[in-house]
Amino acid sequence: WNPNAITFANHSIAGYYPRSVFVNTNNTIYVAHQQKGTILVWHEESINPIEINHDNLKNPASLFVTLNGDIFIYDTLEDKTVQKWEANTNSFITVMYVESPCSALFVVNNDTLYCSVSNNNKVVKRWLNDSNLTSIITVAGTGSKGSALNELSNPQEIFVDVNFDLYVADSNNNRVQLFLSGESNGIIVAGANSPNPTIDLNFPSGIVLDAEKNLFIVDSWNNRIVGSSSNVFRCLVGCYGHGSGSNRLYLPSSLSFDRFGNMFVVEYHNHRIQKFEYLEKSCGKLK
């Protein structure tokens, strides 16, 4: 990746203290604008976003977009509910009641919704075809803060792979945990107390897994993005300390990739979305 980013959206477009960005397989980019209570949508090649808004949308924080264009949203002011904006009807419906805010959402196969319940130190899921909106199953964490393999502390973003294995950015434990499908004990795949050499993390907040199971981590308090290949980790962008220059990050919170491999990073304290272009000719395996 080019170490010098292009500012895709600054505070005048994306608002102050942005938290999340999502890029789908059609290269459509979604950003939650908290102050305006809207979802900004850039279709491929577009310069100016369209806005999705509704009376039920007041302060959107986390979001996830499915292949058919439905948007799942946790709104910090619409307490304890997850909303879905349906692309084909242009309408909002409530799809989940939660006991505490969702710091991240993830949807698998359009029928299973995961929520990272950061304040309650666990990850839960529910089947969307179940009419009971409170029918929720805990899939990681005990609900109590801790650092044991079956515990989490302030989990942030999550990623579920094709095998339904769950990756959790276990932020206060400075690690990334992998919970194999059906297992209550996690495996530390990056960060503190990993059984294998990885990389030091400081409040990891975002994670993405690619098709080759390479892991990309928003190392928030280290102000950088790190990645793995063949179980070797290194810094990818933001490797020069915090700041506001094009090669620096300041409290990044989330990342997403377009289909060309370009990396979009949300910077909470620089109030912007940065785009790091993928340099195909110069970027091979991580070493």
| Shape field | globular
What multimeric state do the chains show? Answer: single chain
Strand order of the largest sheet: 1-24-23-22
The Rg value, from CA coordinates, equals 18 Å
**Beta-strand proportion:** 35-45%
Structural class: mainly beta
State the end-to-end distance.
14 Å
Residue runs with pLDDT of under 50 for 5 or more positions: 283-287
For the sheet with most strands, the description reads:
4 strands, antiparallel
- Total helical elements: 1
Mean pLDDT: 93
Helix fraction bin: under 10%
* Number of E strands: 24
Series of secondary-structure elements, N-terminal to C-terminal: EHEEEEEEEEEEEEEEEEEEEEEEE
Report on the structure:
It is built from one helix and 24 strands. The chain has one helix spanning 11-14, and strands at 6-9, 21-23, 29-33, 38-42, 50-53, 60-65, 71-75, 81-86, 91-97, 102-108, 112-117, 122-127, 137-140, 155-160, 166-170, 175-179, 187-191, 204-209, 215-219, 224-229, 232-237, 252-257, 263-267, 272-276. The strands form six sheets. It has a four-stranded antiparallel sheet. 43% of the residues are buried.
